[in-house]
Every structure is written in structure tokens, then in C-alpha cells.
Amino acid sequence: MSSFVFSQATDLIISEYVEGSGSNKYIEIYNGSMGSINLADYQLQLYANGAASPTSNVTLSGTLAAGTTIVYKNSAATIYLGATTNNTAVNFNGDDAVALFKISTSSFVDIVGNIGCDPGTAWTSGGFSTLDKTLVRNPSVCSGVTIDPATSCPFPTLTTEWTQSNVDIVANLGSHTMTCVTCTPGAAPTTLASVFNATTFCTSAQLSFTSGNGVNRIVVASTANFADTPVNGTAYAANTTFGSGSTVGAGNFVVLNGTGNSVTINGLTANTTYYVKVFEYNGTTPNCDESYLTAGVTSFSFTTQNNCSTPQIRSILADACSSQEGLDELVIIENGADPLSISDITLNFPSGGSYCNSGCGANTLLNNPAYITQLNTLAGCSLFQYADPIPAGAIIVVFTGLTPSYTFDYSSQCPSATTYYAIFCNNASTTGRFANSGVGTRTLDAVFGAATDAVTYAPNSLLGDGSFVDFDTPGNPTYRQELNCIYPLGVEWGAFEATAVSDGIRLDWQTISEKDADYFSIQHADYTGDFQQIGTLDCVGNSELSIDYTFTDRNPVTGLNYYRLKQVDIDGEIDYSSTIALNYQRDELAVYYLEMLQQLVFSKSLKAGTTVSVYQTNGSKVVSLSIDETTTAVSLPLASGIWLIKLEDPVGRISHVKLMVR
What are phi and psi of 378, to 5 degrees? Predict the structure, then answer.
């Protein structure tokens, strides 16, 4: 079981690090404690080029109020126009450590990088870097790095405690959000994933496996047999295009994160060996309570095909899931570099003759629009279509019966960004095209215009109903069993993105196709991971085209916002998108107290209908007022101490501000 502890910061932290172009260097310090802090007790220290002692050591001055920041800059920095203080220690490059040192305790309160070592040009990890980047401390971080990391020169919290932006991004300077949630991952799963299968193509591979007992799992792929493992309490974004997802160690990319047990990896290189590991994990709150099973995880490998210029037979379903074998077998073909006319295809089956559109008599290759519609309707998305010619590089599924008797339910494969091209043998015989018993071997020959291919298998090596035989380019067979006879075509949503805009966070997503779709439920969660519906949007319903959708969340929280889509069909069937996150920093509201007038004064106007509530630090409400007209001041007598101000505007947007009255 996971646990969550809500705590309060006890000291300063470095809340933002800007290693910009030229001299555009900034360090932001945040006071997340409940009281003001005397900065004269602190030094900002620079450790340049691997130095073990400070090369620049500047004692700070002034007082930093609770809940506020101070921004120190290189004297030549120009890109941030807010309030700043020059500091000669802010003269770092990506390979220089920066520390905040407390004089009274002779100890560090925070460190960026690693003191006493030089990483080269920068500390890097999982796509993060200290060179030409802006790093913002995550809201859940409540204390700094107080012990210098081990001497092997790591920066272990680079990916776990910081959010990265590109060079010269300073939009977050001058304010910081701290939620102070400490997450404790619970027990890890105990059963590993197993029984791995891979059907390989030239630039893609279709993987399936038996899941372990984790709530979720990540699939990590690499061109090296890696030893890296995921970090507890860390969420990894998946992308089925190799090289685009989060990394678990350099060069090891996450291609699946969720409950599934199959994935199609795209963007691969032909004739290349890839290594894959599946890490089961428990936990439901992103970047908080993930607990990974890493002990005993071994990799399995596959090699992409090397003949990509001509069509190749990649797999056959040689033992159907029904008694009417001849109607319910399959041939999977990967097209080559050129479009392929169906009239150029000839399939010479081990049993039952040859099928083609010239010279095979009635044994022709046809379209069956009604059955394709049936397949797509049952699947819930437009997986299959017919085209002549078939596009270059496409995956072709040949059904051995004109109207199969078996119910091929591909609903587990939807939605999909890939189209599969269906062809039907003009066959009504139930006698199998493939032999599924007997000694010796059987061969399927194919002609694709000027190219040919042939694959051979042993019937007595089949595993029973649902037996597929996969083939590499030389024709070597691999035997596996899919008990539902569904060839794993792979699963992925269309694009789903979040963008900060002037009035909130805009969500943009795309459906590849729609069938009997009803509506989207747009769901939001903050750092607690508790998803709540914030809106609905009707689907187009039925479409063979890509459809773009947009929704704006006009009340995001300051800090990390998590979003997912719940798509509901007309019949009540439900499917979820992946979860995405955006660190949103709104224009911060400042509150001041004028003791002589006994007024709260706000840096921005409050609209009529806004509710102002005042709380003690123990959470008890003192007073709540409703604003009758637009104003920047509210009369309210407050005693000395720390008060929490909650503002709720007329449309329900909420802001919290901490106020100290002296």
C-alpha cells in the first residue's frame, strides 16, 4: 500500500536553474517554510570545472518572506525582466556545480550538480541536461540536496526532481509552487512478465507477452542489452515510435506504459537487433508511488528484417480456431518498397491449390466490403480496408475464406494509427489450405510480380488451435499460439497533447477513425492522482478520416496537471487514452496587508462575485467574504501571524496565497 505525507518545508531550496545563452544565467531561491528567513545566514557558492572548494562564494543579504522567491542573476543577463539581484556566483556553465550553504550550521541546504567533479560539458540523464536548459524544481520537492552525491560524478535527482525547458525559457522565474507531498511507494509486484513473442518487419515489430501481476508495466526497448532499471516513484512516458519515449538509462526507450500486453514498435532500423525488457509495477499516482519489480528481469531480443525491397511472407495462421479450417486461416505479408497490384499476387498453398487473378481459374483474390465492415465494427475502429494497389510498406492480411466463419475480434487492438489491407481468397471450402498435422514439412510459395517468396513449416511443430508461424527474411520459422487467433496488430492512440495558453491549458487530440463513438470525458488530476471529469465533448461518431479535437481547461492548478481521455461508445464500451502532464505556472497573485487601513491589498483586481476566505495555518476558517464589485482591496482586521488566503472567482477558479502580518 502506498502512503502520502503532507509536510512543510523547513529551509530554503534552489527552485530554478537557468543555464541560458551567453551570460543569461539565473538561480531562483524559494522559501517554502512558514516564516521569514534571514538570507545573511546563507551563501551562494559556485564550484567551477570540478573544483572541490568554492571558486565563488557570495554571502546573501536581506530577508525572504514565506512563500516567496528571490532571483539571482549574472550581471550581464538580459532575458528576464522581473526583479533580480546580481550575484557573482551566478557565472556557471553546464559542467559547474552550484550550492546553497547555511553558515550557522556549516552545512549545505541544496546542491545542483556534483561538487568536486567535472562531467564534461554537462550532467545528463534521460534526455535532461544542465547545459543550455532551464530546470524548474518539481512542486513535490520540499527539501534540497543536503549531501553531495557520490564521487563518481552523478546528479541523481536531475530527472526525478526537476522539470526541464529549452534554452532561455524564463517564464517561471519569480514564483514557485511547492505542494510538499512525500510519496512512499508500496510493495512491488512479485511475478515477472513471460512468454515473449515478436513478429518482425523491416521498420516495425509486433510484440506480445504474458503479463506479470503488476497493476501496470513499462516495456523498454534498446539496441543494446542494457542493465538499467526504472526508478521507484518515477513515471515514464511511452511512445511507440522508437527513440521518442522516456528513457531508462541512455538509449533505452519506453514504448509501452499501461495495462496492455502487446505493442507495435515503429521507427526501427532494418536488419538491427533490439533488446526488450518488461518491468511490472504497482502504483497509480504519477511520479509518486510507482514501485517497480526489477529483480530477475531479463531481456529478450528480436532482429528486424533485412529484405525490405520486395514483399515478404511474415506469418501464417496454420491451425485455425474453428473446425472450418479452410475458411479461417490467415497469411500476413509485408509489402516492399513499391505499391503492389493485387493482380501481381499469386499464393500457392500447401493444400487447396493456388489463388491469383490471372491463371488460377475461379480461385481468385477478392474484396469483401461487407466482411471488412463487420471486422471494423466488431473491433471498434477502422483497422482494415481494401486497396488496389496496396501501398508500399503496408501490412497485408490474406483471409483464406471469402467469408470466414470464425469471429475475428480485434477490439483489443483499437484504436490504431495503422491501416491493414485485407484480401480474401474466393474459397468456400472448409478444407484447410495449410496442413496442421503430419510429418515432414509444408511450403507456401508466393509470387509478387517479378519477386517471389517461400516459407516452410513443420505441421507437427504446431501448438494447436491458434498456431501462428512467424518467418524472418531467410524463412526461418518461429512457432507460437494465440488462443483467440488474433494476430497482434498493435495498439496506439492518435496524438494527445497539452499546451499552456493565456486562458488555461489547451488539450488537442486526434482520433484515427471512429465507429459508433458517443463522447469523450475529459479528466484531470493534480499531484494526488485523483482524476475528475472537467468536461465532455461529443465524438463525430463514425468516420474513416482522422478527426482533431480541442478542449481548454480554464481552471488548471499551478504546478503539474495530469489529463486523460475516457472515450465512451454508444453501447457503453469505454476506452482510456494515455495520461499526459503539463507543469502550468499562472500569473501569480500577490497579497499585502496595510495595517494602518486594516486592508488586504491585491496585486490584481478581484472581480465582483469573488469569494475571499481567510484560514489559520491549522486549516480552520476565520472569515469568508463575497466581493460585490471589482476591487483591489478588502477591509479586514487581521492580527499578527501567518494567514492562508483562498480566492474563488465567479467561474470557480481558485488561488491560494500565504500572507504574513507583522
Answer: -65, -35
HSE (CB half, 13 Å, CA atoms) of 172? Answer: 29
Architecture label for domain 591-661: Sandwich (2.60)
For residue 337, count CB atoms less than 10 angstroms from its CB and return exposed for 0-12, middle for 13-18, buried for 19 or more: exposed
C-beta atoms surrounding 548 within 10 Å: 10
Mean of pLDDT over the chain: 86
Is the pLDDT at 544 greater than 70? The verdict is no
* Span 209-218, pLDDT tens digits: 988 999 999 9
CA distance 226 to 277: 9
Cα of 467 vs its chain's centroid, Å: 34
Q: Rounded to whole angstroms, how far apart are CA atoms 265 and 164?
A: 26
- Domain ranges for the chain, please list them: 3-184, 194-303, 312-481, 496-584, 591-661
For 132-146, how does the pLDDT look when each residue is reduced to its tens digit (9 = 90+)?
999 999 887 888 999
The total number of residues written for the chain in this structure: 662
The Cα 492–Cα 323 span in angstroms is 33
Q: Which residues, 6+ apart, have CB-to-CB distance to 530 below 8 Å? A: none
The three-state secondary structure class of 3 is strand
Cα angle value 543/545/551 (rounded, 5°): 85
Of 441, 452, 445, 453, nearest in space to 479 by CA: 441
Residue range 194-303 forms a domain whose CATH class is mainly beta
User: If we measure between CA atoms, which residue out of 310, 311, 228, 222 comes closest to residue 272?
Assistant: 222
User: What is the distance between the alpha carbons of residues 311 and 424, in angstroms, rounded to a whole number?
Assistant: 18
Assessment of whether the complete model's pTM goes beyond 0.70: no
CB 434 within 8 A of CB 349: yes
Q: Are strands 621-626 and 631-635 parallel, antiparallel or unpaired?
A: unpaired
**Superfamily of the domain at 3-184:** Lamin Tail domain (2.60.40.1260)
Q: What's the CA gap between 232 and 219, in Å, rounded? A: 15
All residues at 6 or more sequence positions from 486 whose CB lies less than 8 Å from its CB, including other chains? 408, 409, 410, 412, 413
Q: Which residues contact 227 (CB under 8 A, 6 or more apart)?
A: 249
Domain 3-184 shares a fold with domain 591-661: yes
**In CATH, which superfamily holds the domain spanning 496-584?**
Immunoglobulins (2.60.40.10)
